[in-house]
Amino acid sequence: MKKPIAEFIGTFTLVFFGCGAAVIAGMGTGPTAIDILGIAFAFGLAIVAMAYGIGMISGCHVNPAVSFGVFLAGRMPLSELVGYVVSQVLGAIAGAAVLALILSGKTSGWDGSLGQNGWGAGYLGEYGVVSALVFETVATFLFLVCILGVTQKGAPNHLAGLAIGLTLTAIHIVGINVTGVSVNPARSIGPALIGAGSNPQAVVQLWLFIVAPLLGAAGAGLLFKSGLLAPDES
């Protein structure tokens, strides 16, 4: 049970810190507010923290797309993949639920926002579905190239957590205005389900944040499986 428990805690942390930064610090004004850069670093630093906290136990996937890519690269069995994904989704739901509990105590009121992903009219930069689909697919592909690259045999993996966290930070800087950035089905599922009462549109649009990350992860996983992105033998 060590690995599923670690993945639950890691995904809980990602949603709690990342989405929490967006909806608690991000909704502030004056010196209490943060901008896109602050939110991006909250997600990235959450990954860095968990990489060093649980990485030795489960590899710190905290993302079904990452686990899927690792599986397709031939680095984990199907039975383990299923356990990881279930734990990650449950961790994201729990993280969003605790965040909602905290936000419900705001005396001036709370609009139900939990950092849900989305696209279209009224959502952040108001990008269309094609832009959202392309961004999430490409960004997840590049994220997995980093993850699978820095964790492969011969890579300086003592720096893997930092590299992965900074890559996620860069992805958020570019993409927050497009989709709020998912690249992680669990991160999208948790806030969408817990906040469904106030934002049902997030549930309707959830399919994209499951399909696109899995497509991007599949591309990267298969490239590493083929050996095209593996270092030459010396």
UniProtKB/TrEMBL annotation:
Keywords: Cell membrane, Membrane, Transmembrane, Transmembrane helix, Transport
GO molecular function, one term: water channel activity
PANTHER family per UniProt: AQUAPORIN TRANSPORTER (PTHR19139), MIP17260P (PTHR19139:SF199)
Recorded family membership: Belongs to the MIP/aquaporin (TC 1.A.8) family.
Compartments where located: Cell membrane
Stretches that traverse the bilayer: 12-30, 36-60, 81-104, 124-150, 162-183, 203-224
Pfam families xref list: MIP
SUPFAM superfamilies the UniProt entry points to: Aquaporin-like
Topology relative to the membrane: Multi-pass membrane protein
Name recorded for this polypeptide: Aquaporin
Domain of life: Bacteria
GO CC entries: plasma membrane
